[in-house]
Amino acid sequence: MIAEKVQVLSKSAQKKSSQPILWESKGEDKYKLTEVEKKTHGTDIIIYLSEEKT
């Protein structure tokens, strides 16, 4: 895998009261979900590239 870690930060545009969520994975069988702060709606995808693949 070229990514060491992937994060997806998302806040619904339709549900004003919904809590933004951060999804994180290191490419293993498990992932982590965390409620976070995000002022604007939408989705941000952050990819941390592996040193060996860059």
What's the helix and strand layout?
Elements: E1 3-11, E2 21-25, E3 31-35, E4 42-49
Antiparallel strand pairs: 1-2, 1-4, 2-3
Helix and strand element order:
EEEE
Give the biggest beta sheet.
Answer: 4 strands, antiparallel
Number of helices, where a helix is a run of at least 4 consecutive DSSP H or I residues: 0
| End-to-end distance | 11 Å
**Helix content class:** under 10%
What class do helices, strands and sheet pairing give? mainly beta
Give the mean pLDDT: 91
Radius of gyration: 13 Å
**Count of folded domains:** 1
**Overall geometry:** elongated
Q: For the largest sheet, list the strands in their spatial order.
A: 3-2-1-4
The overall strand count is 4
* Poorly predicted runs: none
Strand content: over 45%
Commentary on this structure:
- By secondary structure, the protein is an all-beta fold.
- It has one domain (3-53).
- The chain is 0% helix and 50% strand.
- The protein is built from no helices and four strands.
- It has strands at 3-11, 21-25, 31-35, 42-49.
- A four-stranded antiparallel sheet has the order 3-2-1-4, with no helix packed on it.
- The protein is elongated and about 40 Å long.
- The mean pLDDT is 91.
